[in-house]
Structure to design on (329 residues):
């Protein structure tokens, strides 16, 4: 295995044995430490007292993240998605991916500090984007992004309906209370604040209707908001469940295909471990799936294609079917 492929296995596949584990654990710990330092620096007293420590930590984190960024660009041609591209094309393609842009933004503030006079707040806060680098090490975050991607249309529909109701509510309270409380409901834009906090059931109480009609509308909207505010949460929960089940099924199929007479070789186990990590499944889930398939009796149904008359077997593990062609003798 060449050095570039080994680097790719460690940084992207999170493999590489104990050494790979230490490297990824160290990078994750450094990201967390850097983000905590940025948060603490927002307190002027703490920032002044530990100025030297913060500076050295930032310089160290900047150095490590810069090396990591360069290595990720260098090893990007190892990704199977770039098999049909040259090394240069693969690297240019990688540079515009979301995670590559996050890596760049993680080190950019330190570079800009040499050219911008003063300690700009925006540059310091920009370092908080390093928290997004944790998505490489926190699989639940990766699952969340997958759910948001697959449920984007559903989320858009829910928020569209919610936004429409907010506008209708603001219009209604404007018509009812606009003349009585012009400072709060004198226009639809002014009424949007009350409509939003009421429909989302937050209810700060800083602005309240005083007429009977306004109170009736407020009560109706507050009750309706219980359902509307819970809609995105329900979509998220259903999406999480569907995504986890899909990943378990993917791992289950992979285990079945790699199992030979209820035995999985050590080489196949390593491949399954890599797949388990990629899918974000726990060791317990993976172990249960492997044990369940190992202990399940398989049924085989020999059959023949009605068109080409080729022989094949249909395997039935746990209510599923996998068709495999029979070897010609």
């Amino acid at each position: 295995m060449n050095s570039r492929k080994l680097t790719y296995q460690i940084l992207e596949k999170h493999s590489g044995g104990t050494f790979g584990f230490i490297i990824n654990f160290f990078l994750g710990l450094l990201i967390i430490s850097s983000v905590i330092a940025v948060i603490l620096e927002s307190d002027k007293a703490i920032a002044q007292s530990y100025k030297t420590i913060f500076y050295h930590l930032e310089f160290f984190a900047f150095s490590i993240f810069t090396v990591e960024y360069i290595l990720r660009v260098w090893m990007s041609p190892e990704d199977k998605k770039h098999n049909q591209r040259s090394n240069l094309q693969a690297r240019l393609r990688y540079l515009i991916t979301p995670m590559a842009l996050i890596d760049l933004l993680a080190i950019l503030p330190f570079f800009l500090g040499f050219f911008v006079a003063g300690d700009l707040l925006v540059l310091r806060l920009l370092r908080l984007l390093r928290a997004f680098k944790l998505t490489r090490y926190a699989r639940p975050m990766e699952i969340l992004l997958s759910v948001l991607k697959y449920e984007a249309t559903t989320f858009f529909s829910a928020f569209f309906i919610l936004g429409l109701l907010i506008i209708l509510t603001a219009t209604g309270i404007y018509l009812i209370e606009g003349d009585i409380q012009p400072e709060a409901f004198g226009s639809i834009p002014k009424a949007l604040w009350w409509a939003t906090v009421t429909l989302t059931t937050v209810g700060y109480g800083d602005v309240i209707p005083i007429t009977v009609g306004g109170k009736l509308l407020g009560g109706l909207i507050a009750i309706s908001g219980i359902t509307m505010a819970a809609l995105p949460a329900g979509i998220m929960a259903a999406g999480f469940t569907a995504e986890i089940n899909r990943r378990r099924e993917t791992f289950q199929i992979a285990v079945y295909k790699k199992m030979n007479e209820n035995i999985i070789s050590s080489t196949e186990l390593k491949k399954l471990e890599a797949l388990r990590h990629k899918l974000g499944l726990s060791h317990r889930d993976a172990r249960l799936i492997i044990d369940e398939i190992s202990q399940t009796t398989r049924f085989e149904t020999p059959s023949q294609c009605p068109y080409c008359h080729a022989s094949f077997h249909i395997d039935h593990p746990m209510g599923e079917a996998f068709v495999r062609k029979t070897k010609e003798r």
